[in-house]
UniProtKB/TrEMBL annotation:
Organism encoding this protein: Variovorax guangxiensis
Name of the protein in question: Rhomboid family GlyGly-CTERM serine protease
Membrane topology term: Multi-pass membrane protein
Keyword Secreted on entry: no
Membrane-spanning ranges: 28-48, 55-74, 80-97, 106-123, 143-160
């Protein structure tokens, strides 16, 4: 099942576009899956009562497609990917950015920490301990693409209501 669902660049380009979404549902191992599940629970705790289930579902699909499409378009060296972390980084930004923009200091601090983590990952290779824990290398590009897609989604959600009124 993992082999049929993970992101494989050649398979996507060969006519298997579902992998752009399904790759985010499969993981390299149980450690990887549990880390992503813990991150998702933490993100949901930050968002408690602020977003509907419909908004969550939409954000997850938009972020998953965005990460997948950017992997194909901008990262030809990314040949294999599995896991929720790209979407998860995006979800953190999607939840935290609007709160930070409205003056929530805790949201701002956590948002800065998430962005700093992505920046740090871009210049430091995956440690051996982390590689063993998740069962492979971290694909930092997916984290970056999730963050960029989340920022675009936040801006769209802030601008769209104003455009509809005009």
């Amino acid at each position: 099942m993992y082999e049929a669902l993970r992101y494989e660049r050649a398979a996507v380009l060969g006519g298997q576009p579902w992998r752009l979404l399904s790759a985010h549902a499969v993981h390299l191992g149980w450690g990887h899956c549990l880390m992503n599940a813990g991150g998702l629970a933490l993100c949901a705790a930050f968002a408690a009562g602020t977003r509907s289930w419909r908004a969550w579902a939409t954000a997850i699909v938009v972020l998953a497609l965005g990460v997948g499409i950017l992997l194909v378009a901008a990262s030809p060296q990314a040949t294999n990917y599995a896991g929720l972390s790209g979407v998860l980084y995006g979800l953190f930004i999607w939840v935290l950015a609007p709160r930070a923009w409205r003056g929530d200091r805790v949201a701002l601090i956590v948002l800065v920490a998430v962005l700093a983590r992505i920046g740090w990952q871009m210049f430091h290779p995956t440690s051996e301990a982390q590689r063993v824990l998740i069962g492979g290398d971290v694909m930092v590009e997916a984290h970056l693409y999730g963050a960029l897609c989340a920022l675009a989604l936040c801006l769209w959600q802030e601008v769209w209501p104003h455009l509809r009124r005009a």
